[in-house]
Amino acid sequence: MNLPESYIPILIQAGVAVAFVAVSLLGAHFLGPQQKKGNSVKNQSWECGIPVEGNARTPFSIKYFLTAVLFVLFDIEIVFFYPYAVNFREFGFEGFLAVLTFVAIFFVAFFYVWKRGALDWDK
């Protein structure tokens, strides 16, 4: 198999990454705390001294997850504004138009989410 020489560092890095994951997983398994089997008091759920109430596997409302995804989506928008805020003079008018386009796309997304009722908690 003839690989170009430029692929060798990539293969070395991929090998190191796979080896690191394997060593981390095996190390955690063998060096980590061992769980005792059984139904002892130590293995039961405990929260701040309050007795357990119900099952911990009850499903959350989809609105919780939708809010989290929307927060991440609109929070990432701020990350993309930072380079523009730092270099707005170098970008000139073309950069300003690009940022206006970016903001317009996010406003369309925001109004779509709003009209679909994702931000209404009373429903």
TrEMBL record:
It comes from the Bacteria. It catalyses: a quinone + NADH + 5 H(+)(in) = a quinol + NAD(+) + 4 H(+)(out). One of its GO terms (molecular function) is NADH dehydrogenase (ubiquinone) activity. The chain crosses the membrane at residues 6-32, 64-85, 91-114. GO terms for cellular component: NADH dehydrogenase complex; plasma membrane. Keywords: Cell membrane, Membrane, NAD, Quinone, Translocase, Transmembrane, Transmembrane helix, Transport. Coiled coil: none annotated. It is a multi-pass membrane protein. Its main location: membrane. It is an enzyme of class 7 (translocase). Its EC number is 7.1.1.-. NDH-1 shuttles electrons from NADH, via FMN and iron-sulfur (Fe-S) centers, to quinones in the respiratory chain. The immediate electron acceptor for the enzyme in this species is believed to be a menaquinone. Couples the redox reaction to proton translocation (for every two electrons transferred, four hydrogen ions are translocated across the cytoplasmic membrane), and thus conserves the redox energy in a proton gradient. NDH-1 is composed of 14 different subunits. Subunits NuoA, H, J, K, L, M, N constitute the membrane sector of the complex. This is NADH-quinone oxidoreductase subunit A. It comes from Chryseobacterium soli. The gene is nuoA.
